[in-house]
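Retro notes (design track)

What went well: tokenization of the new backbones is finally stable.
What didn't: we kept losing track of which sequence belonged to which structure.
Fix going forward: every design gets posted as structure first, then sequence, in one message. First example under the new rule, 334 residues:
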């Protein structure tokens, strides 16, 4: 069973999961990859995956058969175990109670964001929201980290377009650090730092990548990686799972656009995309604002970065934003 271990010096939590060693090894994404026959995520291969926990599918079809548009199931190689109500506690470790789900984002064997149209991205956004909303109601779970690994260099072990959801009994340190920073800023300025960031980026324009009436995407001023891009609501919104119905289509449109622009600028395509939202056990936070961080993996995290926690970004975010804005995005598919 996977276990959480705490390092009291750095205050980091580590997940030890022997189960993960058996998973398929990452492969480089290429157009010539013809592994659809072997792919467990393709429509028609439902029996090769754990049973689904959620799907958007045509009403004539039943769970765990073909006919779905987006399908969510437990990860076959989980980093987190099933939930238990009586978890033995240790001083520095505890079983990794939680859940690890996979969101398969198309029944077709495609790898790139642009291969899917806005209508499909809309279903994907609805599935994301449904899963977070579901897990926010489960006892003992404090956080759900939604993330996407694309390309072997970013840790993807399946080429077929998908995301993952790690449901955790702890708040991840990266989010805890953001919450602390945002809280400190709020105490000083009585404003949400993300709301201020949106305002500044909209005014300065140089780092903007895309925008809609409700959302904006930009290369952050202090981005760690070339082409790093953040996407967030333009108005204060602490919880992704409370995304209003009126905003889902705009989010689908801009998320697709931003991922397409990023994919057009990096070769081979390799990036991670993480959703940061407020912990489930908080209430109407005034200082934290959900957002998506897209981090291309063109540079290697080496000794300096690991040892210092500092990142060297060779591409100024202003230049990255200009290149991203100029990149072409695949036409809409209906
Ligand atoms: Zn497939
Ligand atoms: Zn805000
Ligand atoms: Zn963040």
């Amino acid at each position: 069973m996977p276990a959480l271990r705490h390092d009291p010096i750095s205050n980091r939590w580590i997940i030890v999961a022997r189960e993960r060693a058996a998973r398929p090894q990452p492969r480089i994404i290429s157009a010539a990859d013809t592994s659809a026959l072997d792919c467990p995520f393709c429509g028609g291969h439902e029996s090769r995956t754990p049973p689904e926990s959620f799907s958007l599918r045509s009403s004539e079809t039943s769970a765990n058969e073909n006919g779905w548009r987006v399908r969510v199931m437990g990860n076959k190689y989980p980093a987190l175990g099933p939930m238990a109500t009586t978890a033995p506690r240790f001083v520095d470790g505890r079983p990794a109670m939680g859940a690890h789900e996979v969101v398969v984002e198309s029944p077709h064997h495609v790898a790139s964001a642009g291969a899917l149209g806005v209508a499909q991205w809309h279903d994907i956004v609805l599935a994301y929201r449904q899963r977070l909303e579901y897990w926010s109601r489960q006892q003992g779970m404090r956080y759900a980290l939604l993330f996407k690994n694309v390309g072997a260099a970013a840790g993807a072990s399946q080429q077929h377009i998908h995301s993952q959801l790690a449901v955790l009994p702890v708040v991840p340190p990266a989010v805890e650090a953001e919450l602390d920073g945002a809280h400190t800023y709020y105490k000083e300025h009585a404003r949400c730092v993300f709301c201020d960031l949106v305002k500044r980026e909209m005014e300065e324009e140089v780092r903007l990548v895309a925008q809609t009436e409700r959302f904006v995407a930009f290369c952050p001023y202090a981005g760690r990686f070339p082409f790093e891009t953040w996407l967030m609501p333009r108005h204060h919104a602490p919880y992704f799972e409370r995304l209003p119905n009126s905003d889902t289509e705009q989010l689908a449109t801009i998320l697709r656009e931003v991922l397409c622009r990023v994919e057009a600028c990096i070769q081979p395509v390799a990036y991670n995309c993480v959703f940061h939202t407020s912990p489930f056990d908080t209430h109407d936070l005034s200082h934290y604002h959900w957002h998506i961080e897209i981090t291309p993996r063109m540079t290697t995290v080496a000794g300096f970065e690991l040892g210092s926690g500092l990142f060297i970004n060779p591409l100024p975010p202003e230049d990255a934003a200009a290149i991203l804005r100029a990149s072409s995005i695949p036409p809409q598919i209906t």
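Added context from the reviewer: Residues 36, 39, 41-42, 109, 160 surround zinc ion (ligand 1) (CB under 6 Å).
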